[in-house]
Write a structure and sequence with these properties.
The structure is a homotetramer. By secondary structure, chain A is an alpha/beta fold. The first copy, chain A, has 6 helices and 10 strands, in the order E-H-E-E-E-E-H-E-H-E-H-E-E-E-H-H. The longest helix of chain A is centred in the N-terminal third of the chain and has 14 residues. Chain A starts with a strand and ends in a 7-residue tail after the last helix.
Chain lengths: 207, 207, 207, 207
């Protein structure tokens, strides 16, 4: 029976990795096997590791942009008959091709695919991986967190050591040395000029 | 108080327009005013009209790619103090700029913004409007419908008069003379070769 | 394959019946058959009818407290091979026994069961049907509506002709001559003294 | 501004306590304070402790059936200006009175209330606390877990040392020496005769 592709999305620091590790734990507790994937780009730690701020960590299989999820899972499945679920951390870093492979894994290999990631970067721009996960996942599930004002946080702001918003730089620093805070849209607009630019300074439209 | 941007997404023929008209009705019944928007591109009917297959219809304000939602709503609000909500049909056709304006309407004009649209087109490709609604909306809500197999339908297939899948053509025919059926991802893969291509024939990746 | 029991819950006047009729329409449009059920207690109209404030209506099979859903659906299914879904309006009026039958219909007869109803009555008390639908339904889905203050409405207040809250009377007048408004919890507490009583005047506890 | 009462519900062993501890962590990380509550009935550990199977634990304030949440939170709030959220574990054990107090805390003391608990016991019967949380919470959020068959688990089965279902005993053993497994409704019906009894052997109805 075909399984589903899930995308658990949220702002930074909501507990995505905790939820991922808990879900994997639940599968294993019930006698099913899982595989964990994390991007190699994450250099916070030695080797690909899924790390939760609350104090949990676990080794994972590393992936970069040339990694074939479909091939890897297909191979693993010949050995592990009980492989029922794969879980992908930082899934906003996936390519379109890789998200399509996850779709195929769920529907052709009958393995549930749980992905966890951000929706937009520090300038509000959509990530490639999230764009296709949001378009194709059979289930979109929000992991909620809060802005300092108490409203739900949905956006990410990059800050320097003094806590001042940074609005220059590349998308991939997301997991480098930069710090991030998660805020509601109202505070994102206040702190980052990009949303105003998108709304009022566009030269061209794309319909 | 800042209001929210909602994106009600679903496959074709799920009842998006019915839900839109019901929500507008609810606001008006409680003494609040609304504005309805529909794309001018929809030539099914005379003038911009929101039409529900179940038998409801209502005139709407037409928008094309050069339409400024922010300006329009800001002006209307000076007249209508009770304007509390705007509702946008076929919101996948919005430009990035227009979605950013909807974000600003919710957060600066304190008007709730309810948008309704598809996630992906007949080849599985993401729409521009949906890409940014999925990235920025404070609430993503699915309107469910079913595949002919009984599973949830999440994808759209364009079919000709004989019901054969069509995999050539432009995205905007979506609202022209083409017919569509909504299917689950498994049947989408069976009927449309594009998802296999995305997964296994990509030359380049985009991380 | 076992199907699911769904409970679509909301406050009064949110559009539950509209959603029910749309969902039935979707099934039929895809070549599947449905059965609609409405309580006989509803005397607003001639015969059991599902009526939507927005202008839709449709005949339904009437049920009272002695009606056996399981027997009825089992019989119908021998004739209608394509019976894939039943839809139950005003489902808060169901008995525990009847909700259990709906569970069995989904799991033993492989027919999807979509129920629509309120969570609590005009004094905040839980309905018998809702109590068990909320406990057993595989999917709980909220149909949102708004309070006059703009917040989400989750509670129901009975009002007289002058719009004054009524806090005396029986639960079943819900569908009689009484009028109702749907409000957020904050306004419910302001308008109806019961919640304060539940919180601060209880003589006994029930753990 | 009034805050909301949330009920995070799930079957046993889904990760409710992990989610609770993560949410508390998120509040504290953003400079807000929280209070944690756990039932004294839980004798698994010394003192009231919120324990997560995945390896997290934290001390909590104990509550029994005579505990006044409203009074406690009101007092705490005079000292802690930054108290923004309380989190209640095993919330199915609450009394109606206590759930009503949580409603008042959210709406009158402007403190968010996050509760975590089961919907039904080992015989499928609704818990008192869950009955009113499901009726009154402004947000119902499911924490998903899986049955051994791969479907979503929504029901709880009590088992003895050999893993045989137990269908005799009291509701409160839930947290005693009994073991539990979480299953989908189809497997619950197969393992526990109660649902069939509810559906087909009822002598009286309760509409």
């Amino acid at each position: 029976m075909a399984k589903k592709l899930y995308f658990y999305y949220s702002a930074m620091n909501a507990g995505k990795s905790t939820t991922l590790l808990q879900s994997s734990y639940n599968y294993i507790e019930r006698g099913m096997q899982t595989l964990l994937f994390a991007p190699i780009i994450d250099e916070r730690f030695e080797g690909p590791t899924i790390y939760s701020r609350i104090g949990l960590k676990q080794k994972a299989i590393g992936y970069d942009s040339s990694f074939s999820f479909f091939e890897h899972v297909q191979n693993e499945k010949t050995n592990k008959k009980d492989l029922k679920c794969i879980l992908v951390d930082e899934a906003h870093f996936l390519s379109k091709e890789q998200v399509a492979q996850l779709v195929e894994i769920a529907n052709k290999l009958d393995v549930a695919v749980l992905t966890y990631g951000l929706r937009s970067d520090f300038l509000g721009e959509a990530f490639e991986g999230s764009k296709y996960l949001l378009a194709w996942a059979e289930e979109l599930v929000e992991i909620k967190t809060i802005c300092h004002c108490g409203r739900k946080a949905t956006m990410n702001v990059r800050v320097d050591e003094e806590g001042t918003p940074v609005t220059q730089g590349t998308q991939v620093e997301v997991l480098g040395k930069a710090s991030y805070i998660s805020v509601c849209m109202k505070h994102f607009i206040d702190m980052v000029p990009e949303m105003d630019k998108y709304a009022f300074e566009a030269e061209t439209t794309t319909v």
